[in-house]
Amino acid sequence: MTSFWSVWVVVLTLACLAICFGLLVWNLKNYAGVKEGESCGHEFDGIEEINNPLPKWWTYMFFATFIWAVYYLAAYPGLGNWEGLAKWTSSNQGVKSLAESKQASLDAKAAGETVQLDTEIQKAEDRFGPLFESFAKRDIIDLAQDEQALEIGQRLFAQNCSQCHGSDARGAHGFPNLTDKDWLYGGTPDKIKETLLYGRVAAMPAWGPALGEQGVKEVTAFVLSLSGRKVNQKDADAGQAKFAMCAACHGMDGKGSIAHNLPFGAPNLTDNIWLYGGSQRAVEETLNNGRAGVMPAWKDILGEDKIHIISAYVYSLSLDK
């Protein structure tokens, strides 16, 4: 906040407090012109206005509220750029990475500052850490049958994974569906946990410059034919010859990395499951411009114990119910 707006907030806040205090003091005096307890001379519908003082309980409560407001503004941030005597903050400000966040937390603790977010995280860790640790000692396949573990895993998934994969884990354009049996890097418990721990970086190169417009059209026709689509057979035959440059990742049969035990994460092109769309236009776009999907690594963010539970939840989604 700039100095101008800081002063603006301070002046308005203190002015409001001063006005409220002035109104309270002013109403404690009798300005009605008649003695307390006597009629003010106003009557309507049988109701007469009496000059009574403010109730004592109301007056005391108002003074207590005013004193609390002054204390609160002095102790905590609220008056512009004022940091507060209690050195309290809701979170560590200005961090741009996980490493900076951890360092800011350590610096705040060393300086005796109370950071609300750090306090809440520590309370949660103290309360739920032992539970996560006990689940982490069990096999993922075993956890996938445990209702309590799955409930916890679902909540962790909703907090950290649903932004990309959806709350129902069915994915979206560019984000895999986790409820089917189609896996780019493997759907075993170990592979799912590996993906969550270390992330994945895809690298589908752009083939447009090498193939040219007609070449892209021909390879697209062949790729679509692999999943049983009706295409121009002449283009598909020409595209099959050019598909050799794709076979290193997808295999000559187009069944992808999993079928050929390759580490690239190349999808199976013979089914009808498309991460970026299976229309002719979408496939041409993929060939022309390539794809660069990234799955972030969660090891340093969530820790291995929580990832173990999420892995069990994700694994359970594709099991036959």
Radius of gyration: 33 Å
Strand order, largest beta sheet: 1-2
Most strands sheet? 2 strands, antiparallel
Provide a count of the helices. 15
Under CATH, the topology of the largest domain can be stated as: Cytochrome Bc1 Complex, Chain D, domain 2
Main location: membrane
Cofactor: heme c
Binding site for heme c 2: 204, 246, 249-250
Protein name: Cbb3-type cytochrome c oxidase subunit
Describe the structure concisely for a colleague.
By secondary structure, the protein is mainly alpha-helical. It has 15 helices and six strands.
Describe the structure.
By secondary structure, the protein is mainly alpha-helical. The chain folds into three domains: about 1-25 and about 55-90; about 125-200 and about 295-315, Cytochrome c-like domain (Cytochrome Bc1 Complex, Chain D, domain 2, Orthogonal Bundle), CATH 1.10.760; about 210-290, Orthogonal Bundle (Cytochrome Bc1 Complex, Chain D, domain 2). Helices cover about 55% and strands about 5% of the residues. The protein is built from 15 helices and six strands. Strands 1-2 form a two-stranded antiparallel sheet. The chain has a two-stranded parallel ribbon with strand order 3-4. Strands 5-6 form a two-stranded antiparallel ribbon. A hairpin with a 2-residue loop joins strand 1 (about 40-45) and strand 2. Helix 4 (about 115-135) crosses helix 15 (about 305-315). The model has no long low-confidence stretch (mean pLDDT about 90).
